Amino acid sequence: IHAPSSSELKGKNYKDVKKELENAGFSRIKLKKDKDLIIGFLTKDGEVEEVSIGGNNDFSSNDWFKKKAKVVIKYHTFPDKKRNSAKKDSSRNKYFILE
Fold first, then answer.
1. What DSSP character marks residue 12?
2. What is the pLDDT of residues 25-49, one digit of tens each?
3. Which helix (H) or strand (E) holds 34?
4. Distance between CA 78 and CA 49 in Å, rounded?
């Protein structure tokens, strides 16, 4: 199977890259989040950082890959928001025993 070069895929949205590689014939595609965004101004949420096919992350459109080659699409995104709502709610439910 042929794929676009790694430099062509970098910077695109990960959903578009996944679809493009599926259309090329790849079936073992894994998405990997790089939760490194703070503002998302220079680098957009979902922007591809790197694509690896069969362990190779520097490939050209002339390279051939096996159909079952493992593909990893690493993309930028925001960190998960912490969920502190349970802690906040529990502070309201305190009981006091008066003697």
1. S
2. 999 999 999 999 998 788 999 999 9
3. strand 29-34
4. 14
Strand partners, 33: 75
- DSSP character string of 36-96: --SS-SSS-TTBEEEEEETTBSS--TT-B--TT--EEEEEE-PPPPP--HHHHHHTT----
Tell me if the pTM is above 0.70. Answer: yes
For residue 7, the one-letter residue type is S
Backbone angles phi, psi at 75, to 5 degrees: -135, 155
Residue 7's Cβ-side half-sphere holds a number of Cα atoms within 13 Å equal to 3
